[in-house]
Design brief:
- The protein has about 160 residues and is of the alpha+beta class.
- Helix content is about 25%, strand content about 35%.
- The strands form two sheets. Strands 3, 4, 6, 8 and 9 form a five-stranded antiparallel beta sheet that branches. A four-stranded mixed beta sheet has the order 1-5-7-2, with helices on both faces.
- Helix 2 packs antiparallel against helix 3 (about 125-140).
- It is elongated and about 60 Å long.
- It starts with about 25 loop residues before the first strand and ends with a strand.
Amino acid sequence: MSGTASPSKPACDHPGEQAAADPVRLVEIRDTALSVDEVFAAVGDTAAGGTALFVGTVRSHDNGADVEALGYSAHPTAEAEMRRVAEKVVAAYPVRALAAVHRVGDLRIGDLAVVVAVSCPHRGEAFDACRKMIDDLKHEVPIWKHQTFSDGTQEWVGA
């Protein structure tokens, strides 16, 4: 679903039904613990009827193997690329507010690796914009995951 009105539903001229003037509120790559509350608070907007939140956590397994350790590293341009992805999402959807943070460094099982939130006038737009943000972040932003498995093997993902 795009941010444009469908043929059966006319566009609304009310400002609350449109994208905000400066919707990208928080885009960062950090080497410290992430906060769901911080990201959720960053997308608060009284004109938003829907807020979608995605939280990516470090899981204990991948492709049938037990994960022992995991680390993320990022290219120096990664934060700028993440902002570019965010701006692309807000251009395609009526985003009132968007926030995205990604962790780098060594993480433990259960740690938060990425938190993305998007608020829009309606829930469907919020779900779609949030999904687009996390999917494009994973595919386009130069952040790499290094996994060590319990059998001693290692794998780079995204490199």
